[in-house]
Amino acid sequence: MAIGGNRRGKSGGRPEALTDQVDFASGPASSSLLEVRDLRIHFPTDDGLVRAVDGVSFKLERGKTLGIVGESGSGKSVTSLGIMGLHHGTSTKIEGQVWLDGEDLVTAAPSRVRELRGSKMAMIFQDPLSSMHPFYTVGAQISEAYLVHNNVGKKVARKHAIEMLNRVGIPQAASRVDAYPHEFSGGMRQRAMIAMALSCDPELLIADEPTTALDVTVQAQILDLISDLQEEYGSAVIMITHDLGVVAELSDDILVMYAGKPVEYGSAEDIFGRARHPYAWGLLASMPRIDEERVTRLVPIPGTPPSLIHVPSGCAFHPRCSYTELTDGRCVAEVPRLRELEPGHLAACHLTAGQRMEIRGEDIDGAGITREDK
Amino acid sequence: MIATVLLLVVVSMITFLIFFLLPRLAGQNNYQLATQYVGRNPTPAAVHDVEVKLGFNAPLYLQYGRFLKAIVFGAHYSNGPSTTYCPPPCFGYSFKTQQPVWPQLVSDAPVTLSLGVGAAILWLTGGVSIGVLSALRRGTFFDRAAMAVALAGVSLPIFFTGLISLTLFSYKWPIFPNVQYVGITQNPLLWARNLVLPWIILAFLYAALYARLTRAGMLETMNEDYIRTARAKGLKERTVIVKHGLRAALTPIVTIFGLDLGLLLGGAIITEVTFGLHGLGQFTVEAIQNQDLPEILGVTMLAAFFIVVANLVVDILYAFVDPRVRH
C-alpha cells in the first residue's frame, strides 16, 4: 500500500448485498475504537478478479476482543492486513471504510497510515521465525519499532526493549536482548514478537493465527499472555484463527467468514450457544469438546473452500451445505443478506427460523448443540 | 587460518607438479626440459650444464623442496658466465628475460589491482542499485530495459565492448586519449582518467551479472514474512527496502563478490590486453607466448594466492554478515 497503493474510499458500497438492518451509511465514526464498514479487498489477477474480502463490517470497542474465524482462504488474514494497510502494490483494490478512532484508514494518506502502524495498531504474525529478520538481534528488532514512533535515543530504546522482553515473560531479558531469533525457541520467539507489537502501547492489536506454528502447550501460554497483556494495556484485540477453541476462550464477539464474506456475526455466546449459520454449525461440530459427556465423532465439513475467483452462485457455502434443498433454490440463486436475527446477532442464511428450529431442535434457543442433529 | 596456509601449500604443490611432472609424463626427458632454459641453438654441453645446475636430475621431492626454499631464502641462478642472486621471495628466475620472476610480478600487480578494485567498486554499486530498482519496479519499462542491457552485458565479450569504447572515446572523440597505466603515486588524476574506460568496460560485464543476481535476491526477500513485519512496525518504505530487504539479499552477493575479485586480481587478461595495460594478465599472456615456465609458475601461484585469500575473507565476512553461521 505504501508504494502506489490503490486505496479508494467508497461510501455506501453495495448495501443491498449486505444487510438491511445495520446502518452502513458513510459518516463520522462511532465511538468504537475500530469500525469496519463494507470492506472489500479485491486482487485482479490474470485468471480473474479474486474477491478475497467482499463486504466485511464489524465494530470493536476498546479493551474488547473480536475473533475472526474461518477456513484457509476465507479472507480473515486479508481483512487484517487490509486494516493495517499492508496490502502492497497497485494491483490491490480496496473499498469501504476502516475507521480507527475517528480516522478512515482507507482514504487516509499512506504516510499517515504508516505512522499509525506500529504505534496505534500493531500486529502479531503466524510464524514467529519467518516473521523476524534473521540478521538482527531480537532487541534491535524491538527497539526499531519503538524508535520509529518515539523520539528517543538508542539507549532508551534498548532499555525499553529489555523491559518489554521482561513483560512478555522472557527470563534473563537483559542478556537475551542481544540474542538472534534463531537462538530462541518457538514460544520465546512469539513472545518476542508480542513484545515488538506492544512496544508502542497500541490501542489495537491484531493477532493473525498467533499460535498456529507453536506446540500445544506453548499455545495456551501465548494465549494467556495475550489476554493478560490486553488487560494490562487495555488494547482491543482482533484474534484471527481457524481454531474455534482459541476464540472461545478470549473473544467477546465472533465474526465467522466464508469465501471472503461474513456469514455470522455476534457475541461469543451467540455463536457458541445459538449459532444460526450451517457453516458455523459445521465449524462447531468439527471442534473437539471436553465438556460433552458422550464421546462422539468429530464431524468434518464436507468439500473444500471455494475458489475466490469463481465463487459459487448464491450462497457461497451452498455446495457444501446439507440444507440447500429446503429453500426452493434460493441458496443457489440468491446471495443471502446478513440479517439481524436477534439484537446484535447477524447471520447470512436463507433458512427460516422455523426451518432452523426443525433442524436444530430445541437448541435454537441456546441450550448448546448436539451433533446428531446434523 | 591454518586451513588457508595448508591450502596454499597444496596449491603450490599441485602447481609445481603440473609444471615439473606433467612434461615428464608427456615424454619429455630432463635434457629436453633443460633446453627451454637456455638460449637458442644451444650446444649439447650447455644444455647439459643447465640440466645439472637447475637440478633436473634430482628426485622430484628435492626439486620441490628447493622451490620452496627459494621462496623463503632466495636462490642463486647461474646465467651463463655470471651468477644472479634471486632474493626471497624467489618464485623462480626467467632465463628468457634474464630476470627473477617476483620483481616483475610486483611491478605489474598495481596495474591489475587498480583495474580490479576500481571496476569492483563500480560494478558492485552499479549492479546492486540497478538490481534493487529493477526488483522494486518489476515488470515496468525500467526493469525490462535494465534486464535487456544486463543480458547484453553478460553476452558481449570485453574485447568487443572494449574496442568499441576505445574507438569512440579515445579516437573519434578523444575524451580519454592515450589510455595507458600511470602510477597512482605519480599522477593520481591521470591514473584515474586513463582507467575510466577499462573500469567501465570491465565493470559492465560484472555489473550485468550482479544486477540480475540482486534483482532475483530482492524479489525473493521482499516477499519474506519479516518484510511484512518491518512494514507492520510502521517503518518507512526506504528503511524496509534497504535495512531489511537489501540486507538479506546482499548476503549471497558478498560471497560471489569476494571470489570474483580474488579471481580478477590474478589478472584481468582480456581487459588488460584490450587496453594495453601491462598488468598481471598481460604478463601471463606474454609468459605463455614465450613458453617461459618460471614466469607462468610464478603468476599462477600468485593468482592462486589471491583466490585462496579471497575465500578466507569471504568466510570471515560471511560470519559477520549472517549471524546464523557464527560459531
Most extensive contact: A-B, 32 and 22 residues
Quick one: biggest sheet of chain B? 2 strands, antiparallel
**Helical content of chain A, roughly?**
25-40%
Radius of gyration based on Cα positions of chain A: 21 Å
Provide the CATH topology of the largest domain in chain B.
MetI-like fold
Tally of domains of chain B: 2
- If you average the pLDDT of chain A, what whole number results? 84
Radius of gyration of chain B: 24 Å
Average pLDDT of chain B, rounded to a whole number, is: 88
Structure in words:
The complex is a heterodimer of chains A (374) and B (327). Chain A is an alpha/beta fold. Chain A has a domain at 128-201. Chain A is built from twelve helices and twelve strands. Chain A has helices at 76-84, 110-116, 138-149, 154-167, 173-176, 186-198, 216-233, 244-250, 268-274, 278-285, 330-333, 353-360, and strands at residues 34-45, 48-60, 65-69, 93-100, 103-104, 121-124, 204-208, 236-241, 253-258, 261-267, 339-342, 345-347. In chain A, the strands form two sheets. In chain A, strands 6-7-8-3-9-10-12-11 form an eight-stranded mixed β-sheet, sandwiched between helices. In chain A, strands 2-1-4-5 form a four-stranded antiparallel β-sheet. In chain A, helix 3 (138-149) packs across helix 4 (154-167), helix 4 (154-167) packs across helix 6 (186-198) and helix 6 (186-198) packs parallel to helix 7. Mean pLDDT of chain A is 84; it is low at 1-25 and 363-374. Chain B is mainly α and 327 residues long. Chain B has two domains: 2-90, no CATH class; 102-325, Orthogonal Bundle (MetI-like fold). Chain B contains 14 helices and four strands. In chain B, the strands form two sheets. In chain B, strands 1-2 form a two-stranded antiparallel sheet. A two-stranded antiparallel ribbon of chain B has the order 3-4. In chain B, strand 1 (75-79) and strand 2 form a beta hairpin. The two termini of chain B are 15 Å apart. In chain B, 38% of the residues are buried. The mean pLDDT of chain B is 88. The interface between A and B is medium-sized, with 32 and 22 residues.
